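Course exercise 7: structure representation. Students receive a sequence record and must write out the corresponding structure in token form. The form below is the worked example handed out in class, using Putative Exopolyphosphatase (517 residues). Read each field label carefully; the graders check that inputs and outputs are placed in the correct fields and that the protein name is recorded exactly as given.

STUDENT ID: A-19
EXERCISE PROTEIN: Putative Exopolyphosphatase
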Amino acid sequence: MPKLAVLDIGTNSIHMVLAEVQPDYTYKILDRFKDMTRLGDGVFTSRRLSDQAMMRGLEVIRNLVTLARNKGYERIEGVATSAVREARNGGEFLDHVAQQTGLTVRVITGGEEARLIFLGVQNSVALPEPPTLVIDIGGGSVEVIVGNRETIYHARSLKLGAIRLKDLYLTKTPPSKAMLHELEDAVTGQLKQALRSYKTKRVEQIIATSGMAGNLAEVIYLQRTGRPLQQLNLTKISAKEIAAVEKRLAEATLKTRLAMPGLDPKRVDTLLPATMVFRILLDVLRKQELTICDKAIREGIIYDFIQRHHEGIQAERDIPDVRKRNILALARRCHVSETHALHVAGLALRLFDQTTSLHGFGQREREWLEFAAILHDIGYLINSRQHHKHAYYLIKNSDLSGFTAEEIDLVANVARYHRRSVPTRKHSEFTALPQGNQRIINVLSALLRIADGLDRSQFSVVRNVDVKLGKSVVITVQVSGDAELEIWAARGRSDLFEKVFKRPIQFVLTSQDDETT
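STUDENT ANSWER:
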């Protein structure tokens, strides 16, 4: 089953989840990793990622990417959010990531971040028909999304992330009353403006996602029950409880905060601004309760991947062999006639299997023949004239995962010689190859030329072939209709076979009811 690693490079934390997509297009999380790297510390005042933060981030990303690859995860979807998005040296940081890991990370917009967060919630919580408001407080931004189980009505990304607010407004601990008033005014103003264009009275519930909300719920639950929170998802916390935690954090010294049961020490300076945002949102919407969801952007990325790669995931399920799957994917991208390509491949393989005593090749050469047969007509994408040559260049320059450069060269050459001229010393690309590879191309091309001729009309008239070897090679062709065109084409393509094996070919027709014609 398809495996996907999601790397989320956030302002506060770097997360990775390892997922496996199931046959029914759901997914299973196999492992999670998190490091509160604080990549965005200071970035919203200096507009730059600090050297220390970049070093921390690069080390964490290197370790996580290595871990994923060691566990067999070839697909890694990496995204970066507000800290990298807003830093003047964010591009430089991502260049370092690419150089050190080979991973290209997408920097997503605030709007895309909101869409992915809601997608994660939408597929994890039974949302009602009336609108739900989802809020996600990260380190740099706050995403506010209003939607229901079917659609998003309203989405905004606000510059109200917890690290940003801490850097801009809370410059000492505990903060002064003036700092708190200034912060409250800024948060209230942005939230009211963001929600003004939407009729918020219609909102039935508020759902909060991600680490800030989760840690706040843990603190409140411990205060409420004296016991640790057993299940974060769908836990409810009240506006009164949130306001009480906010007051305690605002009045506490750093030491007192660290002693608060349930508070994550790495959020000692950011939980206060996050809690204030939650409390003000509930005040603005006149709601009394917040529901916690433990799914957000990373799960949204997985669902988005499943939606975008539905056909590819089905292909992985139907065709476990990655090499054949990639060959078929290239054929489909080039809009070949799949029926013709697969029929020619089947005929070529039957010819290969029945002439083994002549050529002496094994399974790997058989695979190369099959792959070349599937791709032999992709050159039509460029032009029908010289399409055999176009096929060669398309195969040579395609990113075929799972193949060595030598294998790609062999498959490209076999496809190139499926029609027209046979390999000669005038062809520099061919003569530059080792002698052993030249023989492989000669033999496999000879078989492919005949197989392609036997489906000249592309109606699969030739159903099967039976080969008898002697001083001449007799190919009995079983047909389901008139096949004169196919026999004419196959005879015209027999030149390379007769040259390679130094014996003539005879074609004998037989119908499906075994009546010789």
